[in-house]
Amino acid sequence: MENREKIIEVKNLEVTFQLGGKKTLTAVKNVSFDIYKGETLSLVGESGSGKTTIGRAIIRLNETTDGEILFKGKKINGKIDKETKKDVVRNIQMIFQDPASSLNERATIDYCISEGLYNFHLYEDEEDRERKVSQALADVGLLEEHKSRYPHEFSGGQRQRVGIARAMIMEPQFIVADEPISALDVSIRAQVLNLMKKFQRERGLTYLFIAHDLSVVRHISDRIAVIHKGTIVEMAETEELFNNPLHPYTISLLSAVPMPDPEIEKNKVLIKYDGSEHDYSVDKPDFVEITPGHFVHANQKELEEYRKQLGI
Amino acid sequence: MGEKNIILSVKDLEVKFQVRERVLTAIRNISYDFEEGKVVAIVGESGSGKSVFTKTFTGMLEVNGTISKGEIWFEGKNLVEKTKDSEWEEIRGKKIAMVFQDPMSSLNPILTIGDQISEVIIKHRGLSKEEAKAEAISLMERVGIPNAANRYDEYPFQYSGGMRQRIVIAIALACRPRILICDEPTTALDVTIQAQIIRLIKELSAEFGFTTIYITHDLGVVANVADVVAVMYGGQIIEYGNVEEIFYDSRHPYTWGLLSSLPQLGTKGDDLFAIRGTPPSLFEEIKGDAFALRSQYAMQIDFEEEPPFFKVSDTHYAKTWLLDPRAPKVEQPEAIRGLHERLMASTSKGGGYSGK
What we know:
Helix content of chain B: 25-40%
Order of helices and strands of chain A: EEEHEEHEHHHEHEHEEHHHEEH
Distance between the termini of chain B: 42 Å
Number of helices of chain B: 12
Structural class of chain A: alpha/beta
Largest sheet of chain B: 8 strands, mixed
Strand order of the largest sheet of chain B: 6-7-8-3-9-10-12-11
Shape of chain A: globular
Oligomer: heterodimer
């Protein structure tokens, strides 16, 4: 994988929030990972784990306090010049969890989808803009007649399509999708996932997919990173992670995943994780590549055990 | 259903809502018997009517909603005849209790946790303040609050989301209800916490002996929690049966569609199965089978006449013309045949992702 083109490089990222007064909260600590062109990397963790903060830091919605984020080799966090900023806003788009609150409810769908085009003058004339909007609507399976409607006139699944159309019309290279299907009904989820996959095939898009449910991301991810309390504890190719989970938190998450099968659920054993299983007082942990492409956050003693488990 | 012990019996229920000038029929003629002591999961997408259906059991329909037809029998009384709030107080919270999705909105933010539990005990069971406190602490312990006595005087904001939901469950159980309605109680929670809350509800239902009605759209949760499953679509129950019958031997094309679209059953690199189209508008009269427009198995009759329930087994019924003896024989779709074997094979550790 080393010779694949890296589209995003996150190096020792830290995001700290001011909580008023002198109180601070470090939501993301020393996080490093790369995203390769054309792949889907999923970031999985529970609420408060910092997964959304990382996604928002990449599109510059959250300020970073330490570390670097590179987009196609160029630094995009902190102070950057106007040109780079423009490049980021145009080429990195976000799809949000709640399609209702991410659309301007007083604007027509036509405007919602065109907003980015207006901001960057990405159209030759009015005719060209209209053509682009019609194409974007058609691409996500909506109709021409939907243009003049308002977001509240759509169902959740349709609104999420508008959210996707609005991102896709910018012809981005990289998309941060923050729980894009969590708010949708089961029968609609598959439609939206298929749509995202289709765009990836056709346009070579790269995704960072943020989610809390491992079983849902298995189907769409090339690699998965598991995050706990601001630290990535394990990262591997999808099937490797499911077949050889090492970190106790990953194992606990996997044990909790609801499976649509009464037999399996009946025999389910929940594995709890509270962090007390680690002794990091002397032997400090690090994020180590234990087998090619499989990273785990562990200290020397734990690494030895993991190697034993893997039979290496 | 013969000799089974029925705790709640719904007959020909129809619920209408007045939305501006239009009338929406949210529940279209549901008849269903809830068996005592079971966990019944009601599955459906948003707008299928699953929440509205159960709200009628406690008189909690929104003001623009009315029961336009039908009966709901509980303890020898027809609940539909109750109109005043004072009449409902005998039932609501006391005999039929509810747990909702968002625990924060069910708790009073300016009262201590302890007061909120004892209040219910004092009001409904007439215990003294001290007795109520002792009872409340024991309930808190029972639902898994560590240091219950110390946390008695804390406020909801000092509790995490999962702990709050445990408190809501404790309050619901304070009156020893006969039926507990859980409306998406874990949807807002993380998977690890969700699994713990579901296990708690199951344990408590066995221990306290109440009947659970569990509303959810998550089939993974259903597989875990349910004894019996009722699938809702377009304001009707369209299939019901034991949990194994629904997961391993479903008969309605909508149930097939729901199961087939599960991401857990997807094959890498292939598109997931997606039910085409969107649910029907309940503002308009629905002719025939409500799912016909989206179903790849629809026949001419599905657009003309509403199907009756056909019997699959003593416990399993489905409302689809495909079960009519005159219909061509249609097999379950490929995607969900051998569901158990396929999910078991999905990790080298033998399913369940337990990793160990």
